[in-house]
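**User:**
My hope is that you can spare some time for a protein that puzzles me. This is the protein in question:
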Amino acid sequence: MPSAAAGTRSTADRDSPSEIGVRPRVYDLAMNSTPHTSVVVGIGELGGVFAKALLSLGHTVVPVLRTTPVHDVANRVPDPDVVVIAVGENDLGAALASLPTQWRTRACLVQNELLPRSWEEYNLVDPTVAVVWFEKKPGTPVNPIIPTPIAGPAAELLVAGLRNVGIPARTVSAHEQVAEMVRKNLYILVANIAGLEVGGSVGDLWTAHNTLARAVGDEVLAVQSWLVGESLAEDRLYDGMVEAFNADPGHGTTGRSAPARLERVIRHAREAGLATPTLDRLQETFGRNA
């Protein structure tokens, strides 16, 4: 996946971190006498929030921009506390493919539509994963919806930093985080895809168009179950989605990414051999080629 920020990977970069004796760092927030340095890859709105959170903890934050020679930075900062990968979800594969070996035990992922398969092919070792439940748009304050769950070696560090800047966050286990990722994916995909037809807010979607939202959600959950390779607690996931709907009922349902999200879910469904009559109908009318 091409990216202006991604260079060609060397043989060393393709080595698994476990093969070179590097292990994830577990953070002790009480031990704060040593200077700390963290890296943020992608300084957009979301990357800026995480940079501010880390700065609030006294960290030196090193930004990696699209034009930054990432391996030069890694040579200067070989052992950061955390490397927050804050690029857009469409650029995640390229960013992880070009991630220097010495950073692969320090990675933190924050994108939408994350699942373990998002990083498994890139030799990351025990990444920190933040399921982000806040919005930051240009020129506006951060809008937290519900607390952001974070799992992994840098979870306590990032929870502390986010709380310092007024964003609710909590730590969860790696096992719990799979359900948290699916919950957020259900929220995004139901709102975006059903919203293509009815527009409006998530509150209106659930109260006035519940049949459509449920039909989309059931097909999305079947695909998510296939993607994670395990059965899902659907009632609990719906409850979690509705909790987020109720926390910000005026939140808009859809956006520019919605047709691409719909197309991606259908592609995965075809790979899994799953029928998606509701999604197929919406694709005919609202897909990118409609």
